[in-house]
Amino acid sequence: MREQFLAAKPALPFVHAPRLSFRSAAVAGDRWALLPSAAGFVDPLLSTGFPLTLLGVERLAVLLEEDWQSPRLIKGLQAYETQTLAELDTTAALIGALYANMDQFDAFAALSKLYFAAAMFAETMRRLGQPQRVNSFLLMNDPKFGPALSDCIEKARRRTTPPDRLPTIEAVLKAIEPFDLAGLGDSFATQLASVPRGRFAGRSAEARRRTCGHRASAGALRVHRELMVPRGLRRPRGCDTLRT
Ligand SMILES: Cc1cc2nc3c(=O)[nH]c(=O)nc-3n(C[C@H](O)[C@H](O)[C@H](O)COP(=O)(O)OP(=O)(O)OC[C@H]3O[C@@H](n4cnc5c(N)ncnc54)[C@H](O)[C@@H]3O)c2cc1C
C-alpha cells in the first residue's frame, strides 16, 4: 500500500466528520415536503436510505396525484411528516440496539433479522398486491410487529451484569415468527443450542408461511415461491437443472 501510494498527492484535505446523523425539525409545510433522505440520516449499518426514501416518494406521489388541489393536502403533508420522523426514529432505535450489542454477536445477529424478516414480508405482500398491509418501514405500524419490535429494542438496550443475550434473542424469534417467510428464525434457533426451540421451531416453514398473513391461499404461496426465485433461474417444469 505504502509503495503504491508513495507518489500520490492528496487532492483534498483530509476531512473527519465525527457525526453524520441528523434529524430535521420540520419535514413538510405549505405545499412543500422533504424526502426522507433530506429529513434525516441515521447510519449506514442497515442500508436503510433507499427504502426509507422510496416509501416517501410513493407517499408524496399519492398526495400529489390525489390531493394536490384539495384542502386535504395540508393534513396529508402533516401525516407524511409524522410518519417520516417516526420511521427515522424507529430505524435509529433499532440501529442503536444493534450497536449496543456489538459485543454479543448472537444478539446482534438476531436483531438484524428483524429488518430482514420485515423487509422480505413487506416486499412479498407488495408483490402479492397487498401493499396497504405493509405501508410502514420495519412494519412499525403493524399491530403485531410494531409492538414486538419495540419490545426487542427495549430488551436489547437493557444492559445486565453479566450480559444476557437470551431475552433479546427470544424476543426477536417471537417477533418475527408470524412474518418469517424465509425461515430466518428456524436456522437461527438451530444454531443456538441454548435458545428454547420448542416454541419457535416446532412448525414447518410451510405452516409458518400459512400463518404469516397471506391467509394461506395455495395460489398465494405458489406466487410467493415463484417470486423468491429470480426469473432467469426459474426451474422449468420437469427439468432438474436450473436454467441460467
Ligand atoms: C456513500 C453512501 C452510500 C450509501 N449506501 C446506501 C446503501 O447501500 N443502501 C441504501 O439504501 N442507501 C444508501 N445510501 C443512501 C442513499 O444513497 C440515499 O438515501 C438516496 O440516494 C437518496 O435518494 P434521493 O433521490 O433523495 O437523493 P440523491 O440520490 O442524492 O439524488 C438527488 C439528486 O439531485 C441532484 N441535485 C441536487 N441539487 C440539485 C439542483 N439544484 N439542481 C439539479 N439537480 C440537483 C443531485 O445531483 C442528485 O443527483 C448511501 C448514501 C451514501 C452517501
Secondary structure topology:
Blueprint: E1 22-23, E2 28-29, E3 32-33, H1 36-39, E4 40-41, H2 49-67, H3 72-100, H4 105-127, H5 145-157, H6 166-176, H7 184-191, H8 198-201, H9 205-211, H10 218-228
Antiparallel strand pairs: 1-4, 2-3
Helix pairs in contact: 2-3, 3-4, 3-5, 4-5, 4-6, 5-6
The chain binds flavin-adenine dinucleotide.
Residues 35, 37, 44, 47-50, 53 line the site of flavin-adenine dinucleotide.
Q: Can you put this structure into words, describing what you see?
A:
- This protein has 10 helices and 4 strands.
- The protein is mainly α and 244 residues long.
- It has one domain.
- It has a two-stranded antiparallel ribbon with strand order 1-4. Strands 2-3 form a two-stranded antiparallel sheet.
- Strand 2 (28-29) and strand 3 (32-33) form a beta hairpin.
- Helix 3 packs parallel to helix 5 (145-157), helix 4 packs antiparallel against helix 5 and helix 5 packs antiparallel against helix 6.
- The protein starts with 21 loop residues before the first strand and ends in a 16-residue tail after the last helix.
- Mean pLDDT is 84; it is low at 212-221 and 229-244.
- Bound molecules: flavin-adenine dinucleotide (FAD).
- The site of flavin-adenine dinucleotide (FAD) has 8 residues, from helix 2.
Poorly predicted parts: 212-221, 229-244
The helix/strand series, from N terminus to C terminus, equals EEEHEHHHHHHHHH
Mind telling me the C-alpha Rg? 22 Å
In angstroms, what separates the terminal alpha carbons? 39 Å
Q: Give the helix/strand class.
A: mainly alpha
Q: Based on Cα principal axes, name the global outline.
A: globular
DSSP E strands, number: 4
Bound chemical compounds: flavin-adenine dinucleotide
- Helix segment tally: 10
Summarize the biggest pleated sheet: 2 strands, antiparallel
The share of residues in helices is 40-55%
Number of domains: 1
How are the strands of the largest sheet arranged?
1-4
Strand content: under 5%
Average pLDDT taken over every residue? 84
